Amino acid sequence: MLGRLRAALPSGDDFLFSVKAFAGAMLALYIALRLDLPRPAWAMGTAYIVAHPLSGAVSSKAVYRVLGTLLGAAAAIVLVPNLANAPEVLSLAMALWIGFCLFVSLLDRTPRAYAFMLAGYTAAIIGFPSVADPAAIFDTALARSEEIILGILCAALASRLLFPRHVGPVISARVQAWLAEIDKLSVGAIEGSWTDEQRIRGRARLAGDASELHALATHLDYDPSDLQGMTRQMQALQSRMVIMLPLLGIIRDRVVALKEATGAVPPQEQALLDAVRRWMAVGPTSDPDEGTRLRAASSATLPALDAAADWTTLLRASLFARLRDFIDLRTDCCRLWTAIVAGDRRLPEGLHRTGEPMTESPLHLDLGIAALSAVAAMAGVLVCCLMWISTSWADGATAAQMVAVGMSLMATQDNPVPALTRFIYGALAAMAIVFVYQFLIFPSVDGFPALVAVLAPVFVLAGAYMIRPSTAPIALAITVNTAVLLGIQDRYSADVATFFNANIAAIGGFVIAVIVLSLMRTIGAEQAGRRLLAAAWRDVADAAGRPNARPRVFARRMIDRLGLLMPRLALAPSLARGSERAMVGVAVGVSTIELRAAVGTLPAPARDDVERLVAELQDYFSRRAGDPTGEAPAPPVADIDTALRDLLRLPEGLARRNAVFALVALRRGLHPSAEPYRAAVPTAPLSAPRPVEVPA
């Protein structure tokens, strides 16, 4: 009991964050009062909206929030005066603008998203209260922009000056932990001692950590730490880190398959595996030059592949080819991380190519959810505006603002209804707090120091719960709504009727948002996970049909989806099997892309068999996309073996070798329990392929 109570209390770090947020809010309030801005409370409330434990995150978001505020103000200035005489049309125009901005923000997983989100609901904050006096829209827009921007800047200033917690050290700790964990799993993979739990949970956890690292790294350019300006180096590091995950699974699979087929790996090859294992066991500080020597040894161990090659030979060749690739990536990671820690802003020399330039975004985007969220926000705003117009609701503008704000802030969640419901509870608590302040405490307050003293207990305590995921919605609602609804001015004035009308309208707006979201925009963790898995398999099917698909870009996007899936596994354990299949799908998809790319280099008999197999694979992946957690019959193993025999009869070449490795991966990924491949009866080799080579 005592332990649970202790865990429920805020920690020292929680209180430190809260004190910094309160200091930023008080600074914004003080400056707004000194500048005689119309609504200083908006500056105070904005400071709490943008507060974040990491100073770099506050700074990066602050830049785009300022841009979004100015864009939203400009939209209000354009729309309100021109459409004020047609309230229904103005409501539609505002709803379209809010929906469009929300849609764009959900398709951008960088701090830029805040610019579009702010542009949407800032237009509502400025525009809806101005319909009664459209001629004053410019003055209103200027005042709200000044108040909001002041709150943003003060929050950023407090975060950077008062015991700043930089993004750089957090990223450093995460990267070192990630590299140490991948090395630990690598040792288990090479030994073949991975358990099913390690295979499924371990790689899924690392995929989730990689997604979190990407989100943190987007703030580096705004973070005054040792890693400031290291975004390019971090991108190079991350692009290699995520590709290590599917390779690790392939290596483990080949080691296990070899031991099953022969009882043990040959002594000379086992000695090489042991040397690689010892090198990895050192951790992220292991010698890159030793990695170069191990790579050369792996290349020298690759057996010749001809028509007489049996299944064991193919497994050995696949193992040491992928081990070589893994050593390349790990060596690059060691060199990159050493350079980053040393503050070297140049990319180290000797990095291996990752396959293609980073010109295509590797991140998962869900157009369907983004569009649905935008339509739901538009519907919520329109419903509220129609109620406002039809009933001549005096405080309808306040409700419309809250609909726009609530539906925008919660749009990134799978099911925003529970969080927004908790937000309403927080708003009700804020209403009670504001009543006590306005009618019992403020009449006795004289001067700004006394005001700070009476506000501190509530705001510091509530703010300490803002960074806990379980309490953040309620705590954010209490701090922001209390700040805004207090309506602090340079002199005391309070009216009971105004107080209740404004607060009921604000809570009514949130209730409308909850009702609309409940009807239009609620998906559970399992459904969200199924959408991610379906998108992954659609991506595989699409890649199988495109001769110019980029395997590394494809793999990074797949790993990103698995990273997004990770937090949903705890809420929907039924997704665990689907996530493991999707991880296998990364290797299968990359193999299909490599096989598809080799088609144009093959002579007629082999080309026909490979094209037929690729078409079967594309159909299989499409069926998996339709039911991502179900079963679907894979292309027959005999078709894969036929293509293998055709390719092994061809003369040696890089494209042919890559295609053979792709077929081995497909055979193991789709038919892990199949009988071993049987070599063809020796015949005359087929004609040589055209001299077109695919990068390894």
Automatic annotation (TrEMBL):
Q: Does the keyword Ribonucleoprotein apply?
A: no
Subcellular location per UniProt equals:
Cell membrane
Q: Which GO terms describe its molecular function?
A: transmembrane transporter activity
Membrane-spanning ranges:
15-33, 62-83, 89-107, 114-132, 147-163, 367-389, 423-442, 448-467, 474-492, 498-520
Say which species the protein is native to: Segnochrobactrum spirostomi
PANTHER family, sorted: MULTIDRUG RESISTANCE PROTEIN MDTO (PTHR30509:SF9), P-HYDROXYBENZOIC ACID EFFLUX PUMP SUBUNIT-RELATED (PTHR30509)
What's one GO-annotated cellular component? plasma membrane
Q: Residues of the signal sequence?
A: none
Pfam hit, one = FUSC
Topology of the protein relative to the lipid bilayer: Multi-pass membrane protein
Q: Does the keyword Transferase apply?
A: no
Alphabetically ordered keywords of this record: Cell membrane, Membrane, Transmembrane, Transmembrane helix, Transport
State the protein's name: FUSC family protein
What superkingdom does the record give?
Bacteria
